[in-house]
Amino acid sequence: MAPFWLLVRGIIQSACIPSQTSVIVTMSPGCCGDILLMSCITFSAAAIMASGAWDGTIRIYKPRTWHVLAVLDVAGSWIRSLAFSADSLMLASTSDDCIVRVWDVVSGQCCSQLESEADLLSNCIFVAY
Prior knowledge:
The chain is mainly beta. The protein has strands at about 1-10, 10-15, 40-45, 50-55, 55-60, 65-75, 80-85, 90-95, 100-105, 110-115.
């Protein structure tokens, strides 16, 4: 069984299940710090977690210790989705302002912005080609 994390209605649960198994999650009281502000979450291949929040912040964590590696700010726009690149060096985010931002995970700087004509950007993903 491999350990993993689940985000269910703002509460993160640690769990272990065999692969190819259905998961039933029960809610438990209590959580740490700003988890209730989370609107999305993603994990990298390098065991780093990123969470997006309704207040426009993105936090990058070491999930085993909850040590915050960086806090990225999108100026109050609700973060809708996050995705790490395959090498875990870049993080893409979409937000309510309809801008896709690409972040350098090491420096915490936004290195690219792509504006959209869409009314809502709800997902992002890195694709190798």
